[in-house]
Amino acid sequence: MSSVIAIADEVAGFAACDATLARLQEHIDEALARERDWEAGLDAALRLLLAFPDEQPGIARTWFVEMYASGPEAAGRHRCAVDRLALTLTPRRSPLDPTLQELIVAGGIWALLQRHVFEGSAARLPRLATDLRRHVVTLLGTE
Prior knowledge:
6 helices, globular
């Protein structure tokens, strides 16, 4: 019976994470669409993304730390999330598969978020937005 409860808790945790991250993605997409150019949209999107772990610490901890112990389904969700981040934060805004360079940038942002969540220092993330935007622009170019 305890394994059934554990599975139910895991599924509920995935559902809560999925719903919260879907809302975050909607806000990021809206911010990108609202801005006059890619760099301004990137800045707005990064600020939302970097604020998320401090604003939603339970979901962030589940997503960036605890879900890694949940097996292949969680790993697949993470891979999809990094792919989506790669496509979201690039100037080409294409539904195609992300390029290697886009995945490297998204993976680096992901690792930065994960590290700060794991260390309990997520409140510091928003201060990194300007430097992070500058690096993303340098690595991925402009429209």
